From TrEMBL:
Protein name (database record): Sodium-dependent multivitamin transporter
Gene3D superfamilies registered for this protein in UniProt: Sodium/glucose cotransporter (1.20.1730.10)
Cell location: Apical cell membrane
Listed PROSITE patterns: NA_SOLUT_SYMP_1 (PS00456), NA_SOLUT_SYMP_3 (PS50283)
Source organism (scientific name): Cyprinus carpio carpio
Membrane topology, from the record: Multi-pass membrane protein
Subunit: Interacts with PDZD11.
Gene Ontology biological process terms from the UniProt entry: inorganic ion transmembrane transport; pantothenate transmembrane transport; sodium ion transport
Function according to Swiss-Prot or TrEMBL: Sodium-dependent multivitamin transporter that mediates the electrogenic transport of pantothenate, biotin, lipoate and iodide. Functions as a Na(+)-coupled substrate symporter where the stoichiometry of Na(+):substrate is 2:1, creating an electrochemical Na(+) gradient used as driving force for substrate uptake. Required for biotin and pantothenate uptake in the intestine across the brush border membrane. Plays a role in the maintenance of intestinal mucosa integrity, by providing the gut mucosa with biotin.
Keyword Transport included in the entry's annotation: yes
Keyword list, A-Z: Biotin, Cell membrane, Glycoprotein, Ion transport, Membrane, Sodium, Sodium transport, Symport, Transmembrane, Transmembrane helix, Transport
Similarity annotation: Belongs to the sodium:solute symporter (SSF) (TC 2.A.21) family.
Any one annotated GO CC term: apical plasma membrane
Positions of transmembrane segments: 6-27, 47-66, 78-101, 122-143, 155-175, 187-208, 233-252, 273-296, 333-356, 376-396, 402-427, 434-454, 519-535
Length: 594
């Protein structure tokens, strides 16, 4: 299967149009001469482009390739992830956005210095940089891999094409260019997916026939209420565990926070978060429909089993080329859809990485520089991160399933960051020592589980033996532990139980990574804070605490709530913070009415 001339033209038009938007904003308006314009679009963006950019930022080629493949292989259980979108977007809209917006921040990690200390801010920033650079490797590699698998296009040539075009318009056009290219690329993503679904459904005999074949093949999943957290996908892992993944993405991730902060008003920032909800549901539904249409075409004889592709992540593009082979231009449209997903995500990462590096690592530690020099340095940082992420694509080539790998990285690293912000916003007693120890504990736990899970899967074909007793499958923990206890010597019981528990931890569904790791940060952070001397709410910078405990414990008398430090609302007036030590962002923190 190969591209036609029309397909290549459509693909090139996407790259040229994206670069053109960057050039337009580089030479129009303020011409990106200030860091305020380059990094925050002069805080002038309206609701619609911001909401589409929020959607596009993490609706990448990873999801376009991974979701249909997941549905084809395992059925529609994955659709229940949509249940997590409601709280996963409502909580950021009414908790995180008001706090960040009223403090007039440029970087989400400036909040950590206002709430804790400069060392916590630096640790949070470095963790975010690590998270995004690794994730960009996955996002950059995924569409290039698919293109190479079905058309023979040079793999690393495709990586360079995406990376360099993205770096170009991000470094030249700033956040305005990133947001408006996201809008254009979102339209291309919708068009590409719809084209494949419509043509594929028609060829399968209609939507009723697609549904019938999916039902006969047991691909239409019911509501699985199994509470076992070791099960990969159930309603609870997707609908509840997914909330924490969404909070890590839409609540505290700098790429998304930066879009909230560039909005004209706080109300528009909140409305843009609301607008993402129906868009996310549509995107998830399109991915599920494409997976069902794939099953209607191939049934149990998948392209992978037939040897046409080498991995699940290549099946979607093979299916597209198979369905659209007689319709010149449409394969190119879908590949443009894939590349749009990659470009939107990568460009957002470059811009956010440049922002946190400039605001959190450079400005606080060097003498004041001119605006022109600061803007030039920001552009050079965006360029440098583009080159770094090109190199990281090689590491992504060593990973397994693209979808699970990407989500696992966000859960492993995004979870502890979510826990750090929750510790600061919701618990006035937490101090900087507790925050640092909590973050470190969360990261250690995250990588222990993540790496242990990988090693466990690699060695699954050879069951471990302890004192001649084979460790049983941990799918059913009660049966596993009881069987092991009955067949073991007494002196081996404790060791075997611990081994089973650790193995169960390694078998934890990747959808619970964010929840588990963020909870670790909060619990450890609070314990250490109480041991080293808890802080009092009156000693904290105004506006850094959201009174969630006060709202939840409304039924208690006020004197008890005062003792629990949970009665003070977000500030209702503009407060002046007197020293730079108190507020590293500016001389004034603007704290508007709730």
């Amino acid at each position: 299967m190969h591209f036609s001339t029309v397909d290549y033209v459509i693909f090139v038009v996407l790259l040229v149009a994206s670069a053109g938007i960057g050039l337009y904003y580089a030479f129009s308006g303020g011409r990106q001469r200030t860091t305020q314009e380059f990094l925050l679009a002069d805080r002038s963006m309206r609701c619609l482009p911001v909401s589409l950019s929020l959607l596009a930022t993490f609706q990448s080629a990873v999801a376009i390739l991974g979701a249909p493949s997941e549905i084809y292989t395992h059925g529609t259980q994955y659709w229940f992830l949509g249940c997590s979108y409601f709280l996963g977007l409502l909580i950021p809209a009414h908790i995180f956005i008001p706090v960040f917006y009223r403090l007039r921040l440029s970087s989400a990690y400036q909040y950590l210095e206002l709430r804790f200390s400069k060392s916590v801010r630096i640790c949070g920033t470095m963790t975010f940089i690590f998270q995004m650079v690794i994730y960009m490797g996955v996002v950059l590699y995924a569409p290039a891999l698919a293109l190479n698998a079905v058309t023979g296009f040079d793999l690393w040539g495709a990586v360079l094409a995406i990376g360099l075009v993205c770096t170009l318009y991000t470094a030249l056009g700033g956040l305005k260019a990133v947001i408006w290219t996201d809008v254009f690329q979102t339209i291309v993503m919708f068009a590409g997916q719809l084209a494949v679904i419509i043509v594929g459904t028609h060829q399968a005999g209609g939507i009723a026939e697609v549904w019938r074949k999916a039902q006969n093949g047991s691909r239409i999943s019911g509501l699985d209420l199994n509470p076992d957290p070791l099960e990969r996908h159930t309603f609870w892992t997707l609908g509840v565990g997914g909330i924490f993944l969404m909070l890590a993405l839409y609540g505290v991730n700098q790429a998304q926070v930066q879009r909230y902060l560039c909005s004209r008003t706080e109300k528009e920032a909140i409305m843009s978060c609301y607008a993402v909800f129906p868009c996310q549901q549509i995107v998830l539904t399109l991915g599920c429909l494409m997976g069902l249409v794939m099953y209607a075409r191939y049934g149990e004889e998948s392209p992978l089993d037939q040897g046409y592709v080498k991995s699940n992540d290549q099946m979607v593009l093979y299916f597209v080329m198979d369905v659209l082979r007689d319709l010149p231009g449409l394969p190119g449209l879908f590949v443009a859809c894939l590349f749009s997903g990659a470009l939107s995500t990568i460009s957002s990462a470059f811009n956010s990485l440049a922002t946190v590096t400039m605001e959190d690592l450079i400005k606080p530690h060097v003498r004041p520089m001119t605006e022109a020099r600061a803007t030039l340095l920001s552009k050079m940082l965006a360029l440098a991160y583009g080159l770094v992420c090109l190199a990281m694509a090689y590491i992504a080539s060593l990973m397994g399933s693209v979808l699970q790998a990407a989500l696992s990285i966000f859960g492993m690293v995004g979870g502890p960051l979510l826990g750090l912000f929750c510790l600061g916003m919701f618990f006035p007693w937490a101090n900087s020592t507790g925050a640092l120890v909590g973050l470190a504990s969360g990261l250690v736990m995250a990588f222990w589980i993540g790496i242990g899970s990988f090693v466990s899967r690699m060695s699954a074909s050879v069951p471990p033996v302890i004192n001649a007793t084979v460790i049983p499958d941990v799918g059913n923990m009660t049966t596993a532990v009881m069987t092991t206890l009955i067949t073991s010597k007494p002196r081996s019981i404790l060791l075997i139980v611990m081994t089973n528990l650790i193995q169960a931890l390694y078998s934890l569904s990747y959808m619970w990574y964010s929840a588990h790791n963020s909870a670790t940060v909060v619990v450890v952070g609070l314990l250490v804070s109480f041991l080293t001397g808890p802080w009092k709410e009156k000693d904290l910078n105004p506006g850094t605490i959201y009174p969630v405990l006060g709202n939840l414990l409304f039924f208690l008398p006020e004197r008890y709530r005062e003792k629990l430090c949970c009665v003070t609302p977000l500030e209702d007036n503009v407060s002046h913070l007197n020293s730079t030590k108190q507020n590293p962002v500016s001389n004034t923190a603007f704290l508007l009415p709730l």
